[in-house]
Prior knowledge:
CATH architecture: 3-Layer(aba) Sandwich
Bound molecules: zinc ion
Helix content: 25-40%
Low-confidence stretches: 1-6, 214-221
Amino acid sequence: xxxxxxxxxxxxxxxxxxxxxxxxxxxxxxxxxxxxxxxxxxxxxxxxxxxxxxxxxxxxxxxxxxxxxxxxxxxxxxxxxxxxxxxxxxxxxxxxxxxxxxxxxxxxxxxxxxxxxxxxxxxxxxxxxxxxxxxxxxxxxxxxxxxxxxxxxxxxxxxxxxxxxxxxxxxxxxxxxxxxxxxxxxxxxxxxxxxxxxxxxxxxxxxxxxxxxxxxxxxxx
Length: 221
Ligand SMILES: [Zn+2]
């Protein structure tokens, strides 16, 4: 029997492998308002990122992290992100990464530092993990603003952030020949930590892949 070619037997719009689609929940839009909404101060922007983290906990659909990409000068919201790891069965789907991906779709280029764009920033309720650090590195954002530190996240939730470089912020601040990425730390940190604490109190799932239940000792957090 001659093997069949499953690719040529399929129609032009039928693909062999599943499509990769990540959809932000509708409540994200309730919190952000329409695209382009203005958030004048860095605290306004962080308050939105933290509110997305808080709403994720309230909705019970994701880990307690939120992030947004803004235009630095105008404060216009370009794209929000929340953690969709569990909801979408996707370990890379962290809040910062969703915001970066959404921004790149919104502006129509993979390079958020493209000449035609105003300077853009990532505002995140918690310090980027090892993965999101890498995604920030390649994204083209000119600034990262964060609330809770990676140490806060690990201390308050037991999520693991991975082996970040000890001088991760210095690496971003000076990385020739690439343009620097300014790092601003500790904005509304206590408010972000309160959301992390709340997730822990509610017994929110810690999904560190491959760790199994033994690696989720909430009582040690
Ligand atoms: Zn991450």
